[in-house]
Specification:
By secondary structure, this protein is α+β, with helices and mostly antiparallel strands. Helices cover 17% and strands 50% of the residues. It has 2 helices and 9 strands; from the N terminus they run H-H-E-E-E-E-E-E-E-E-E. It has an 8-stranded antiparallel beta barrel with strand order 1-3-4-5-6-7-8-9. It is globular, with a radius of gyration of 23 Å.
Length: 135
């Protein structure tokens, strides 16, 4: 009888532990991409040619939203005081960021992050337009 009571208590305790344990994976996939944070422009160009324009006062900020288990968040783009903001969604399989501004305009850019340098680009015909940002 004592053994039976022991097994009943053991099964009860194990069921409480297994049912009460949530997924403790604290990993946030959006944070893990390296995008979240503030980025300042460092370069721009077409194909392999850098632009000669003075690069100043352009920042891009990515913020996590309330859902810490997805790959979407909020962005703020500040180009010399002209601010555009909205939401973004990251597709890691294609390395794409899809921006949706408050005005509902959508823009899709490919991206790469390497050593705190973010490069985003799009193609206009065969021309590759790129911009780099430093964190």
């Amino acid at each position: 009888m004592v053994k039976l009571n022991f097994y009943v208590v053991l099964i009860f305790v194990l069921s409480i532990i297994s049912c009460g344990t949530e997924d403790n994976n604290t990993s946030n996939p959006l944070i893990d991409t390296g995008l979240v944070g503030n980025w300042e422009i460092s370069g721009r160009g077409i194909n392999n040619l850098s632009s000669l324009e003075a690069l100043c006062c352009e920042t891009l900020s990515f913020l996590d939203d309330d859902n810490e288990r997805d790959l979407s968040g909020l962005y703020i783009f500040d180009e010399q005081g002209i601010i555009t903001n909205g939401t973004f969604l990251v597709d890691l399989e294609s390395n794409i960021i899809e921006y949706t501004a408050e005005s509902s305009n959508t823009k899709t850019l490919e991206f790469n992050i390497n050593n705190d340098v973010l490069e985003v680009w799009f193609y206009d015909g065969t021309n590759r337009h790129w911009t780099t940002y430093n964190k």
